[in-house]
Amino acid sequence: MLRRPAYPESPKTKKEIEKHINELLNMDVIRKIGQDEIVKIMTPVLITWHDGKSRLCGDFRALKNYTKSDRYPIPRIPHALEKMAKAKYITKMDCMNGFHQNGVKPNSMKLLRIICHMGIYEYTRMPFGIKNAPAHFQRMMDTVFQEEILEGWMVIYIDDIIIYSETWEDHVQYIDRVLSKCTPINLKISLKKCNFGQQELLALGHKVSGLSLAIDQNKVAAVLQKPVPRNIKEMQSFLGFSSYYRNHIKRFSHITSSLYKLCSKDVVFEITKERRDAYERMKYELTNAPVLILPHFKLPFKIYIDAACSQGLGAALHQRQIVDGEPREGVICYISRQLKDSEARYGSTQTECLCLVWALEKLHYYLEGAVFGVYTDCTALKSLLNMNTTNRHMLRWQMAIQEYRGNMTIIYKEGKSHTNADGH
User: Keywords in UniProt for this one (predicted)?
Assistant: First the structure.
């Protein structure tokens, strides 16, 4: 149903709606629909809150069902931030009012009509909350700054611009180039949300420097203040937030398995002791997550793998780097997943082989063309490449790892000392 009445509004909500409607009118983001115009489509407005600030958006959920998906790729945040390895200066810029800087085609405006106690309005600029807004804005930004991105000193994530460099002189020039491109297309930057020339700053939910990547504990604190989830929606919200940082968390899939099962169909929502313990454990892991290092793609990598029927598959990607003249080994990321029902019946050697193949597939972004060692507590894994077998799983896995032959060395590490692979 695309023609819907306004939602009931409390006095507080009405006041916020009036404030935002007047602001959007003054910015020419919306226009009021005359009484003589026929309105076939209209969407009620919502007020959402984030960090104590309100935002008005249309409830465009019904419209999404009739909208073709724009498959333009949005950058993966970990890979975007990892490009800043070795950077000594980082600048973050935020596009003012984000999507509102993009226009809307005249024939699409009639689809973007909103209703509230003040009347019916029509968006003339791209609103928040529509299905393809992020992809459309990302495409526009990538097109404008294509040259800068290809030169390797700029990352764009929708309406966030991040500039990084090893020298201050280059950094100043890069900032000037970006700002000079913003002016002709009238792309406005929010100065109060900018951070210029920092060695470390908060970006995309992380504290990032040229050496490391940490969880933004301000984001975590806001989540930890909330009570234990009372329903599936609240639990899904908590798990979605936690999963955003799963690269930082050992045994993520094992810790959260009982919580994910709670969100399954035909499962009664009940917080048992096991689930409460898992919830509290995840809160602890988020608060005490290790600082990750940023990868150097010209240096060798190390992968520590381990598999167990009770805990699933886990791996940790490490690298040894020179920091302040001293060699140091650090974690780049943890990965994990639960075993499928059919996989739980594998023998120990098969499970370790599965873990290796799965880890290589998940970490291919880092490993393609790189030299790396795989550390395992399974002696049989060392001979996997040359093993004579008729087992169809083992044959398929042998084929899967052939592309890494020559660059990969499998190293046995005794179980007691093999503790780095706690990525379950």
Answer: Endonuclease, Hydrolase, Nuclease, Nucleotidyltransferase, RNA-directed DNA polymerase, Transferase
Write down the pLDDT at residue 419: 56
361 and 255 in a common domain: no
| Domain span holding position 258 | 217-287
pLDDT digits (tens, 9 = 90+) for 405-415: 889 999 988 76
Domain count, the chain: 4
239 and 268 within one domain: yes
Quick: pLDDT tens for 189-204: 999 999 999 999 999 9
pLDDT at 424: 45
The residues, ordered by sequence, that sit 6+ positions from 8 with a Cβ below 8 Å of its Cβ are none
On whether residue 1 sits in a domain, the answer given is: no
